[in-house]
Amino acid sequence: MPEKKRVLIVDDHPLFRDGLKGLVERSAGYETVGEAGSGAEALSLARELQPDLITMDVSLPDMSGIDAVREIIRVVPSVRILMLSMYPKFDYVAEAFKAGAKGYVVKETTSARLVQAMDALCRDEYFLDGQVSQDIVAKLVAGAGKETAIQDERYGLLSPREQQVMRLVAEGVPSREIAARLDLSAKTVENHRANLMKKLGVHSKMELLRYAARLGLIDVESWR
Length: 224
Fold this sequence. Notes:
Blueprint: E1 5-10, H1 14-26, E2 30-36, H2 39-49, E3 53-57, H3 65-75, E4 80-85, H4 90-99, E5 103-106, H5 111-122, E6 127-128, H6 134-142, H7 146-156, H8 160-170, H9 175-182, H10 186-200, H11 205-214
Parallel strand pairs: 1-2, 1-3, 3-4, 4-5, 5-6
Helix pairs in contact: 2-3, 3-4, 8-10, 8-11, 9-10
């Protein structure tokens, strides 16, 4: 009997993780080896457990799931990552695949569709929930436009902590709440904010919001 594929589930909502874990355990050929509620925890467990497959939420409390994918792929390049998101936006899909994800599924999909996605990734195929062909996904991964490349280069100038602060600021999270989430002082958060805006060449929260949205790090429609 072939060995079961080992799955790490990453989502900041415990109830959703429980539901997904139940689905994985009921699916032939898969077993859950770990659960994470944040990007940092996902990176640590991925390094420790070396799973075959990771289901990754796009929105995490400490960093975007897309950023987490980039970090995980660096330390566990063989892992296959399936993104789960409420937002079937092209920018999110594009950035997820460029970061190293192999599949993208919206959370409203059926259980059968999700298992289909997992099976596809384990066959080393891409999977995209929707009417987009494998050829289009392959082209998406092969090369991005010049504008996106420049944006990614600027984003790469930020430290990991600045990237976290940037996403939270762009989402409209107040500095005090950012400080509490990241276990920093409010003054340190303000310093990170000033430094990252200087590095990115943006001068207002709205410019930062637009920049983050272009990279697929946040969803403008959910911003408050």
